[in-house]
Sequence to fold (405 residues):
Amino acid sequence: MTQATAPPGAAGPDLFDLGLFADGPPHEVFRRLRAESPVCFLPEPDGPGYWGVFGYEDVFEVSRHPQTFGSHPSTFIRDNPDGDGGAGELMLNQDPPRHTQLRKLVNKGFTPRQINALEPRIREMVVRILDDAAARGSFDLVTDVAVEVPLQVIAELVGVPTKERHTVFAWTETMMSLDDPEVGATIEDAHQAMSEMFAYADRLAAERADGDGSDLLSVLLRAEVDGARLSAMDVDLFFMLLMNAGSETTRNLITGGTLALFEHPEERARLAGDPVLLPTAIEEMLRWVTPVMHFRRTARTDTELGGQQIREGDKVVMWYSSANRDESHFSDADRFDVGRTPNEHVAFGAGGPHFCLGASLARLEARVMFEELLARMPGLAPDGPVKRLGSNFINGIKSLPVRTT
Fold:
């Protein structure tokens, strides 16, 4: 399957220019694209280019048809010419039936019953972390609070010992911050972090190979696909996916959601005065922030989307950040509204087989966090400039200084 070249005359904004993302997703650019060319071919540095999909309905169309728009070989825009270190076999990058088989295995740890049972433990963690932060008076919401909660929760679910969790988190940071010039991580650094994480997962797996533990790693070690146990690489890849996705994205929801409340004090006051709004407020934070800005698919056959002829092998990239501000689907889309309903955002994906596995867990973590944050720190206020992650993939914040008043 060959990658198509750009259609004659194709031109558009360079969404690899991190300057466009300095203050968050470039919503003015997205608005113009939705109006003028909601499906268009865009440039890619050192690559053949890709089809950008910016409208809500078109994003749904791509998500719901994996037989036409596949996830293999990668859900990331760029192909790494030096290889992916095995990441091409991630569940994230698989299509049915392989994806279906793998997803069934890990689904066992994310049933509604399993997730709901975690609430007391999550609340205990949140209260301890917030009380420690409040005692200092001023702190960084990212590093002192938003990082800690999802990291500790997913690590406990997977079965990572407490004293080793920040080591694992450091590997995820290296892998997820490649685009940020301030971090300065190279693709070699990412491969090294991946190798160290795999070696660590192998050691944990060896310790639990014959056990009957209930943590997700132990469950995966006992699992079978078509009568065969998962390979060591399958287990390593599951470990990496769970730790990366479970710790990175929820922390950006918590931080971005708090920043939205700071920037919209009338909505913050509305929510504080009516805590029943919290579930809808969290959905609005998800829409507003959209922690993962895009994912890619690859055309399996010649097809048409949004009036454009797409050829087999073309990259097709769904920009969730744009779809979540589509004025044709969301009334007053550029207004942050903690009571917005309905709110069928695509922050967890737009349906289909790859809808976010951890959506229920992320919602639970965010609900408990904001319940406790609003009750314990009603006077929380910004205390310095926001530092954003340099990325066109993760809508992340590296630092948000705050103070209690």
Observations:
- Residues 1-6 have pLDDT under 50 and may be disordered.
- Residues 108 and 114 are 8 Å apart (CA to CA).
